[in-house]
């Protein structure tokens, strides 16, 4: 097949009719979950909420932090950049721990460290100490997304994963909404009381750790551990699980390197797309548009209501349109709403623009958890999506400084004020174009049964990518229950 024909054959298209039919009724999907599946999902979702609460505490208090430390806004946003820069390290560390040791204890440890660093941020007295803590915090924040996604979605019915992918991702705007609502308190809005925002984040992260402590290990991971234990008892495995995990990681990088590079480009565009619309938005509407801090916070809250709606719709619609087509549609919608986001001068107009732009941004983002999970090397489903996500964050880490620096230099010709909004709109539009291009050339494994794949500590697990619902195990044996099929499959691949 010629390169052109290969490109045409790989373009986004509707998923199979059977897959769309199984996902047609959201209420049926919601009712299909067991209590334990709901509990696993809530634990991962709430951990992601906590991640957002502390991250956006900096965005909402940028002006007060600048006054506190006697630094310009552009310098204070260096803390956001450092947090994003260190997140890939955390994604790798905690992702490997999760893929090797399970979904429970790595997430608990991660949340406890987040609580500690968040609490410490509330006590800092110097700008250098603030930057150091935010850097360390970036490492711990980096682990949350991959661990939350792998635990939540692997315990979901396949036909419900699109909808719950959107629900999971909306944890981020919900976290923004929570901390913005806390910030509305007149007491907290006083210059010296910005620290309360970080105390709030610490308390929530500690609570999230307690929730995960009360739940068992992921059902998928317990099954894989039992399978390995049986093979070890039979003498079929001699190498340690840790050494096997590291060896399989090397295989993954050698075999799937092209998909890894693509995923980093894809998530870099996504993070410029998202952070460009969020990081300096409160500053934009205050300085460019003259809104009060209170109205700026209210506008942020309205925008995040749009993000919540977008995540829900985007995740569910992806079951019908496919993952890539949904991202493309949402990106086009977002760009169409940019004039409404940029041109109004009234509170009502700006609030409407914030709502619809965030609906487009997060409507596309709501597809990301399930999309990356489906195209991920199965054994490293906590590591691979998390590292791709956070490397994209690292590449986009300068977005806040780009907006702050360029906005301060490019003045509005009529008012002479910094043009933060114009710079942000350009950044969003360019990122959306790159994102659409990535979707046109990327892979898609809609409805993949990745819960049937091998774990990282099993032989040749690093080679697996589940490409369709029937590929795993059905080729191995035609009779017997799933557990027996798994055992036969793995014994043949030792």
From TrEMBL:
It is a multi-pass membrane protein. Its main location: membrane. GO terms for molecular function: secondary active monocarboxylate transmembrane transporter activity. It holds the Pfam family MFS_1. PROSITE patterns: MFS. Residues 40-446 form the Major facilitator superfamily (MFS) profile domain. Keywords: Membrane, Transmembrane, Transmembrane helix. InterPro entries: MFS, MFS_dom, MFS_trans_sf. It comes from the Eukaryota. CDD domains: MFS_SV2_like. It is found in: Membrane. One of its GO terms (cellular component) is plasma membrane. The chain crosses the membrane at residues 27-49, 69-95, 107-125, 131-151, 163-184, 196-215, 256-274, 294-318, 325-343, 419-443. One of its GO terms (biological process) is plasma membrane lactate transport. This is Major facilitator superfamily (MFS) profile domain-containing protein. It comes from Apiotrichum porosum.
């Amino acid at each position: 097949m010629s390169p052109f024909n290969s490109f045409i054959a790989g373009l986004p298209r509707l998923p199979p009719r059977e897959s769309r039919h199984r996902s047609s009724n959201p209420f049926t999907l919601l009712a299909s979950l067991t209590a334990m599946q709901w509990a696993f999902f809530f634990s991962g979702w709430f951990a992601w909420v906590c991640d957002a609460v502390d991250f956006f505490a900096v965005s909402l208090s940028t002006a007060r932090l600048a006054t506190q430390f006697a630094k310009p806004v552009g310098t204070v946003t260096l803390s956001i950049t450092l947090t994003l820069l260190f997140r890939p390290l955390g994604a790798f560390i905690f992702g490997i721990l999760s893929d090797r040791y399970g979904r429970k204890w790595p997430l608990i440890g991660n949340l406890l460290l987040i609580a500690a660093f968040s609490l410490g941020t509330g006590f800092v007295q110097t700008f250098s100490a603030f930057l150091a803590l935010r850097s360390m915090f970036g490492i711990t924040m980096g682990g949350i997304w991959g661990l939350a996604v792998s635990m939540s979605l692997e315990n979901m019915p396949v036909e419900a994963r699109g909808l719950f992918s959107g629900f999971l991702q909306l944890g981020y705007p919900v976290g923004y909404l929570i901390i913005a609502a806390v910030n509305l308190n007149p007491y907290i809005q006083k210059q010296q009381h910005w620290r309360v925002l970080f105390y709030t984040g610490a308390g929530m992260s500690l609570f999230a750790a307690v929730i995960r402590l009360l739940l068992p290990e992921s059902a998928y991971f317990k099954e894989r551990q039992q399978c390995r234990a049986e093979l070890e008892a039979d003498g079929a495995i001699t190498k340690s699980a840790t050494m096997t995990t590291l060896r399989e990681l090397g295989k993954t990088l050698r075999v799937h390197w092209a998909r890894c590079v693509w995923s980093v480009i894809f998530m870099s565009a996504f993070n410029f797309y998202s952070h460009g619309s969020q990081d300096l938005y409160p500053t934009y509407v205050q300085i460019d548009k003259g809104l009060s801090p209170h109205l700026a916070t209210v506008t942020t809250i309205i925008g995040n209501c749009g993000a919540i709606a977008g995540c829900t719709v985007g995740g569910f619609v992806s079951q019908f349109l496919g993952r890539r087509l949904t991202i493309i549609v949402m990106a086009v919608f977002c760009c169409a709403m940019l004039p409404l986001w940029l041109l109004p001068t009234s509170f009502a107009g700006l609030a409407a623009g914030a709502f619809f732009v965030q609906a487009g941004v997060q409507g596309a983002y709501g597809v990301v958890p399930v999309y990356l999970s489906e195209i991920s090397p199965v054994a490293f489903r906590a590591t691979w999506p998390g590292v791709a996500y956070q490397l994209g964050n690292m590449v986009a880490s300068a977005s806040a400084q780009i907006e702050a620096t360029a906005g301060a230099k490019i003045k509005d010709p009529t008012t002479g004020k910094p043009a933060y909004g114009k710079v942000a709109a350009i950044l969003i539009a360019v990122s959306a174009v790159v994102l659409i291009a990535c979707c046109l050339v990327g892979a898609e494994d809609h409805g993949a049964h990745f819960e049937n794949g091998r774990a990282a500590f099993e032989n040749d697990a690093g080679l697996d990518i589940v490409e369709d619902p029937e590929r795993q195990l059905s080729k191995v044996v035609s009779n017997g229950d799933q557990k027996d099929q798994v055992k036969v499959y793995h014994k043949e691949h030792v």
